[in-house]
């Protein structure tokens, strides 16, 4: 990597970008230092000895396997208090009416959950109980009942996911799901179908020196800040960066990498080419790019003929789509599509990266298929500096699905079929159900209809992550039993239930004896050791909570469900998931193994039945936007998942109530910055304040989770069942 200064990539000649709008990364360091007062030595050990529990880039302490530099992002710093704070005063839970209406941040700041707590129907709050009593109550409410289990990805390691899904299946159900359902489940569906593997095909090192990186509906400056250092080095190596998005994200225009002297001082220009598209217009744009590749002969014909199928069908599909249709849907011009097609056609190597802007649609699977088509057409798979990357926002989400914590998948990502269920029946020694279970959204639907008796929620907060919070609240209220497993309080725990509500205190990954592992975006399985430090109350590791619960419900299978510790779980994972070979040997800081190697398909074969990549004939979604309406998308600000860290986003100055609107639309409607407006979608409304931003006209953005009140809970993609986090709205000045 070049260490020479390169003014061509500088964002500004102002030292440290003084006077420019951007996050103050050094202030973030100071805030992090203050936030762990009393536990700073422990926090320092977590940073230096632990695997990051933030995004899924993956680290060993403050280093990784992409570059030989120290790095530390604001997300990880902001998560430190959760891992180091003392216990809350449980007397505060005696009457939770005093906590009603508090923001999630305020609830978290009360401290860690130290003991099992129980609230009976009609009681004002929670009472401390023993683990034995808590497990007895939970077992009585689960035995012979209809139940569902949801696990979030906040720092949850592979061992917890694996043990939890095994315990749920020991209870006789496949009703187990995790946060992958509401982020990358369309990627899982489409990638398995087209290339046979539901994971990124390359490594982060492939970014640096690639001819081209294309980000589609992805904003790593907010969600994976360490990745911006990779992009700094990529720019130094001559890589061009293109962005396909509705909003010209300021952090992707220019970024100041705090741990790099040149970038910290002068900033770095990131995006070379921007392509604006409508919310929901990605397929129109991407199909137009494929159409240009075909018409101009920019297809890698040797790769297509030798390693793929379905190319002619894909060609016929885009040939039948007129440029007028593609332009109307995408909001981009035919020339814009040609511009990206030429970039791809001239590139010898490219990495295509996408995230929630692509997946969280009612047709998210087709969005991903359209991206895969471009990679297959140019042969950008199985070799250096090339690949498909569904970048992950949370450290546990890749491993969660691969461990089988998925209603539609068993360990190893195997679909739930009689044949695969029989394999695990033999491995585990108890009957495994052979039909798919309820997804996360299906569980809430069932609870709302009164067709679910119990819900176990490990982390997460349905009131904040799913569309229509009022609908979710009603569903939670109707459950005879709720079991919340977490490290801190959340607002969904305070919702009164039709029966018992249990709070069970969990350990963080850094507290678990025997250490744990996570799987990063680049398929790297990384060991995270137990870190010496204070321990909170009677918190248990989640793998133990779930296996003990299953043992209480079904004592006859207890000996086949319980584990002696995380090393034994890793031994079983290696037997259950063959491509995780090597996980059983991970035992020390820095130990890791990257399954599949640097590139998947380097041997020339895809993991499909015939060994060929599959093109898809992607049809255009039927999207209509009547005159006077806007498409609104939900965006992330200064936050991690639904954990909001600041009211104001340092990149664009947007507060949480901001309604981002193009200057063209704001002028047309006579709305100055700060004007109060109401967005309406049917009977759903949201009030906010206008903030002019570089958006495509006809499109709006509001923050998630605040904007979830506008979303229709019934709109989901057909295969992945991911909620649609977008809505058609009208705007009215208040």
Mind explaining what this structure looks like?
Keywords: Iron, Iron-sulfur, Metal-binding. It comes from Nonomuraea bangladeshensis. Residues 632-727 form the Molybdopterin dinucleotide-binding domain. The protein is of the alpha/beta class and 734 residues long. It contains 27 helices and 29 strands. The strands form eight sheets. It has a seven-stranded mixed beta sheet with strand order 2-1-17-16-15-3-4, sandwiched between helices. A hairpin with a 7-residue loop joins strand 1 and strand 2. Helix 1 (25-35) runs parallel beside helix 3 (74-84), helix 12 packs antiparallel against helix 15 and helix 12 (282-295) packs across helix 16 (334-346).
Q: Strand order within the widest sheet?
A: 2-1-17-16-15-3-4
Q: Helix- and strand-based class? A: alpha/beta
**Radius of gyration, rounded?**
25 Å
- Percentage beta strand: 15-25%
Query: Can you give the mean pLDDT?
Result: 93
Task: Name its key features.
734 residues, alpha/beta, 7-stranded mixed sheet, 6-stranded mixed β-barrel, 29 strands, 33% helix, Mopterin_OxRdtse_a_bac, iron
Sequence-ordered SSE layout with sheet pairings:
Layout: H1 25-35, H2 40-49, H3 74-84, H4 104-108, E1 117-119, E2 127-128, H5 131-142, E3 147-151, H6 158-170, E4 176-178, H7 185-194, E5 212-216, H8 220-223, H9 227-236, E6 240-245, H10 250-253, E7 254-255, H11 261-266, E8 268-269, E9 273-276, H12 282-295, H13 301-307, E10 308-309, H14 311-319, H15 323-330, H16 334-346, E11 350-354, H17 356-359, H18 364-378, E12 387-390, H19 397-402, E13 409-410, E14 414-415, H20 418-428, H21 440-448, E15 454-458, H22 462-465, H23 469-477, E16 481-486, E17 500-505, E18 516-519, E19 524-528, H24 542-553, H25 558-561, H26 566-576, E20 592-594, E21 613-614, E22 630-635, E23 639-640, E24 643-644, E25 658-661, H27 663-669, E26 676-681, E27 684-692, E28 699-703, E29 726-733
Parallel strand pairs: 3-4, 3-15, 5-6, 5-11, 6-9, 10-21, 11-12, 15-16, 16-17, 22-28, 25-27
Antiparallel strand pairs: 1-2, 1-17, 7-8, 13-14, 18-19, 19-20, 22-29, 23-24, 25-28, 26-27, 26-29
